[in-house]
Amino acid sequence: MPLRPGRCYRHFGTPPYTRLEYIKSNPPVLIPKFDLGNPKGNFNTVLKLVVMRPGQIRANALEAARQHANKYLTAKVGEANFFLRVAVFPHHILRENKMMAMAGADRLQDGMRLSFGTPVGRAARVEAGQIVMLVKVDAKNIDHAKEALRRAASKIPLPSRIIVEQAQ
User: Fold this and answer.
1) Homologous superfamily in CATH for domain 42-90+124-168
2) A biological process (GO) annotation for this entry?
């Protein structure tokens, strides 16, 4: 089955579902690398992608944002001239009570009886003001880093903004 739209999982009203010892089918984490670029570089500017509202960000949205920002920064700045970090981890397991949509489906399924759902993916729960992505660059590459984070923000289902700070 295809993925549901991101708006189905954007908000949360239930406790986090994270206890992996009780979950039979554990969905994989889709993000292979959380740190990209040059982690040992001495950069003087830090740019942060901060979410404005609380919500959930699915792992595939985080991965899409990471790939988009990394590809842009690698092409424009170079692999050794930036450090990119995905600052949140998708701990929360998403569940879905799969329903059939065809003629005669009411005889085949139980509706809301035993509707706990099966695991379909992962999401990171974030609060308002929390950092989602972090980019460290030199002062001459600030514009490229801003553009990379702007493109990454378009992949995230929550409103966000970019904060520029001097590194310490």
Assistant:
1) Ribosomal protein L16/L10 (3.90.1170.10)
2) translation
| b (16+ CB within 10 A) / e for 120-132 | bbbbbbbeeebbb
Q: What is the pTM of this model?
A: 0.86
Q: What digits encode the pLDDT tens for the residues 123-151?
A: 999 999 999 999 999 999 999 999 999 99
Query: Cα–Cα distance between 132 and 49 in angstroms, integer?
Result: 6
Domain ranges of the chain: 42-90+124-168
Give 67-125 pLDDT, tens digit per residue: 999 999 999 999 999 999 999 999 998 887 777 667 666 666 666 776 677 888 899 99
